[in-house]
Amino acid sequence: MEFLTLQEAVGKYVPDGACAALEGFTHLIPFAAGHEIIRQGRRDLHLVRMTPDLVYDQMIGMGCASRLTFSWGGNPGVGSLHRLRDAVERSFPGPLEIDEHTHAGMAAAYCAGAARLPFGMLRGYIGTDLPAANPRIRSVECPYTAERLTAVPAVNPDVTILHAQRADTHGNVALEGIIGAQREAALAARSLVVTVEEIVEAFPPAMNSVVLPHWVVSAVVLCPGGAYPAYAQGYYERDNDFYLRWDSISRDRATFRAWMDRHVLGSRCHSEFLASLQDAA
Amino acid sequence: MSDWTRDEMMTVAAARMLWDGCVCFVGIGLPSAACNLARLTHAPGIVLIYESGTIGTRPEVLPLSIGDGELARTASCVVPLPEIFSYYLQGGRVDVGFLGAAQIDRFGNLNSTVIGAYDAPTTRLPGAGGAPEIAAHARQTFVVLKASPRSFVPRLDFRTSAGYLDGQGARRRTTARGGGPTAVITDFGILTPASDSEELELSALFPGATAEEARSAVGWPLRVAARIETLPPPGATEITTLRALHARTQEAHSRAVHVPA
Hints:
The complex is a heterodimer of chains A (about 280) and B (about 260).
Chain A (H helix, E strand, L loop, with lengths): L1 E2 L2 H8 L5 E4 L8 H9 L5 E4 L4 H9 L3 E6 L3 E2 L3 E2 L1 H9 L6 E4 L2 H12 L4 E4 L7 H4 L4 E4 L6 E6 L5 E10 L4 E3 L6 H7 L2 E10 L9 E3 L6 E4 L17 H12 L1 H13 L4 H11 L1
Parallel strand pairs in A: 1-15, 2-3, 2-11, 3-4, 4-7, 11-13, 13-15
Antiparallel strand pairs in A: 5-6, 8-10, 9-10, 11-12, 12-14
Helix pairs in contact in A: 1-2, 2-3, 3-4, 5-7, 8-9
Chain B lengths: L5 H11 L6 E4 L3 H11 L6 E4 L3 E2 L13 H5 L3 E2 L2 H9 L6 E4 L3 E2 L5 E2 L2 E3 L4 E4 L6 H7 L2 E5 L36 E5 L3 E5 L6 E6 L5 H7 L5 E8 L5 H18 L8
Parallel strand pairs in B: 1-2, 1-5, 5-10, 10-11, 13-14
Antiparallel strand pairs in B: 2-3, 3-4, 6-7, 8-9, 11-12, 12-13
């Protein structure tokens, strides 16, 4: 475990062509890390996330990705992810290969990845066209009952990036609230980078908040506000109004690009990004 | 001229189908409004599960996303996502799953993946999310979808979630443990599966709606049940509770967020 700046962590752990999972189910989405990947001009990434959300819409729209593993690609409660759609429907800014699953399938794939098993198993995808569209979704026979069960290949990202509320000075990481499949994504990965709201001497008492021990963590990055416009429970709320506005910002290629140029590429770091939004308000 | 909208009637009709103590897997949008309306009126003990892992949540305002902080803050417990899908849903502990879609066919199969061919879609939709396993494992599902010949189609462009497949008991021959869609709540009334063929048929109409209107809104020759019920209009408590919920929600979602930096 090492403490790094966000620039250093992305530079070291996210090379071109890497398989990267920036996880966080609506809550604790590592937006700051996604923006830094865009600033450093990464290309040809295989992105993995259950819900691509705005963070992958931005990364895909800026040309960082050539492949996407996912299970629900919308703007939650709002509608489409327009940059993802543009990539799938019109190969803009480049072709995007998709590896599509269900939430239950992705969860099983992360669990298998964390356990270093070759595949996850579930009673899933029943009566759906997904296995016909995605040959990686297969079946396996139960050795006890002969029932056919669905198999999905394990997900083992080169790097998983999370955002968490806190790390301590040893690099142990604690996150609480809605925790999605972050623990599984973290332990499935070869490297684990975590951005945090704050670094504390010792965690506040909480028996069951998820703790990732320092020896499974590759790097901790202090990055307050790093989940904005998603949220960090106990620190700041989800900016639902921004999610609503993203629909019009992202619908048009030029408007999207102008927004990214001004706010993401025009900022050297996440605090400058947040300040640029204040200026625009 | 009635003093309620068809949207409101859909929400009220869906809410009335839920019972006190029912364990309900909730989706965003109208299902979330219906479930919370039920909780705030006749079903205070309803258990609302959102796929983000929040169990027994009692939100003051409707969430915009499936994982808003409001859901976690008001939940009786928050569990990891693999646990929700594996132990609760696949484990058979969910009574009712609510689903929406872009397209539905006469057997209640749903498409939320693509319009057009999968490899070259004219419209790429968000995709499956939790729906296929909700459709498979909830004891029963309710589908909520506004009707038009574009949404109620003879043939799906893609089958994302299984209803009764090709009908005539086809679903029961799969390993799906749940019972399938028992009601489709749409903007003229309710369709329910016929007991033998499992084909959806018109069984209830909203006040002011007609079977003729229903037939023209559906893209296949719609069958009509032997007896069509006319549903009572929204009551005063239902409508004031629902409107207050939407007003609180709108105010909360437009509130400025303070971000520490």
